[in-house]
Amino acid sequence: MSRGAFTFYEFFAGGGMARAGLGAGWSCLFANDFDAVKARTYRANFTDAAEHFHEGDIFALAPGNLPGRADIAWASSPCQDFSLAGARAGLAGGKSSAFYGFWRLIEALVAQGRGPRAIVIENVSGLLTSHGGADFIAVAEALVAQGYRFGALEIDAAAFLPQSRPRVFIVATREAPPRALVGGSPWQTKAVKAAAAVLPPHLARHWIWWRLASPPARNIDLAALLEDDGAVAWHPPEVTARWLELMSPLHRARLDACRARGERTVGAVFRRMRTEQGRSVQRAEVRLDGLAGCLRTPRGGSSRQVIVVGDGGRVRTRLLSPREAARLMGLPESYRLPGSANAALQVAGDGVAVPVVRWLADRLLEPLLSPAAVIAAE
Q: Could you tell me which of 222, 235, 309 has the C-alpha nearest to residue 265?
């Protein structure tokens, strides 16, 4: 495939992780983000940003800011109001309502005959269930009103990377999909099927059961992405002791069992509020399955994850580094992170996993948009 065979707009672009996943076969016609830190990061990593990147409020954009007609409009709108870690305000929330700023532009492009051939809306899994499914139905209404058929896939980055990160991808198309892209998929999870089942009939008629296979088995774990022990700063013993004290008896027993086997044990620890005997208790929960928990921004509830290592009869803890967070998102070592740890973790925690985007592009989006696909659908 020649460079730039497909074109796209990237709304709420952040550090450009969707662009990184789409790869060299795609040309960016326009990208935007409101956040100054993310805008600087995008510009630092994409030398052509001056030609197409717009920093600012999406509600301030006009159709004239968007050149041409893109094959795809990608939108990873703010997820705080859909996330289980947020207040679940849904589309009426102050951040996720930015979706409507994006959709106002799509409506205008359609009216001008420039509607993107396809749309990808990426968000947290809470989008499927927010307000009893009403928010998902609202998105479906918007898509169908502008002539799009649509379907959803719930893809966990853990299939590609050692990070548990389920996300919903709504893929919509103005063109009839080829038969080879329709059918069963392991990404049509229970939540996706439940969301599809409650669609009103006038929306259900436009639903597509996208076919997307699973990737080969993941062959790396969390330990493989970590810095060398001597290259990082470890917590003093008293801080590690505090983390161990915060663990429930079950989680502490899991860690002790691994240590008893005499093997080097690597895990990820994150804080949770749990209800125990009728009261809220802060707990440190450890994963020892080779996966990190879902990365969040520094302002999120779980915040920055902690790495725990048991080796040689001792246990040590430390903070996850920004570069390790970038690796957990599938970013290359050459990706330029902001200088401060909080800023780097903000960019990584708000992003979309790069290998997930690449798999979706390779196995669904590119076949959907290719000339051969148009012929196959006829």
A: 309
Flag whether 256 is in a domain.
yes
Same domain, 265 and 289: yes
Residue 328, in any domain of the structure: no
Q: Is the dihedral of CA 129, 360, 22, 305 positive or negative?
A: positive
The answer to whether the CB of 154 falls within 8 A of the CB of 167 is: yes
Residue linked to tokens 């590690």: 240
From 233, 256, 254, select the one nearest 324 (Cα to Cα): 233
Q: How many domains does the chain have?
A: 2
pLDDT digits (tens, 9 = 90+) for 361-370: 999 999 999 9
Cβ atoms of 126 and 82 within 8 Å: the answer is: yes
Q: Looking at the structure, do residues 163 and 296 belong to the same domain, yes or no? A: no
Within-domain flag for 343: no
User: From CA 351, how far away is CA 349, in angstroms rounded?
Assistant: 6
Q: For 336-345, which contacts have Cβ atoms below 8 Å and span 24 or more sequence positions?
A: 336/41, 336/44, 336/45, 337/41, 338/37, 338/40, 338/41, 342/298, 343/37, 343/41, 345/295, 345/297, 345/298, 345/304
pLDDT tens-place values along the chain, 378 residues long:
335 689 999 999 999 999 999 999 999 999 999 999 999 999 999 999 999 999 999 989 999 999 999 999 999 976 544 433 344 444 454 444 778 889 999 999 999 999 999 999 999 998 999 888 888 998 999 999 999 999 999 999 999 999 999 999 999 999 999 999 999 899 999 999 999 999 999 999 999 999 999 999 999 999 999 999 999 999 999 999 999 999 989 988 988 888 777 788 999 998 888 888 888 888 999 999 999 999 987 764 446 899 999 987 789 999 999 999 999 999 999 999 999 999 999 999 999 999 999 999 999 999 999 976 544 444
Of 359, 227, 355, 331, the C-alpha closest to 14 is 331
290 found inside a domain: yes
Domain that holds residue 98: 6-216+351-377
Q: Are residues 154 and 268 in the same domain?
A: no
Nearest to 276 by CA among 242, 245, 248, 243: 248
- Same domain, yes or no, for 31 and 160? yes
Is residue 204 domain-shared with residue 290, that is, in the same domain?
no
- The model's pTM is 0.91
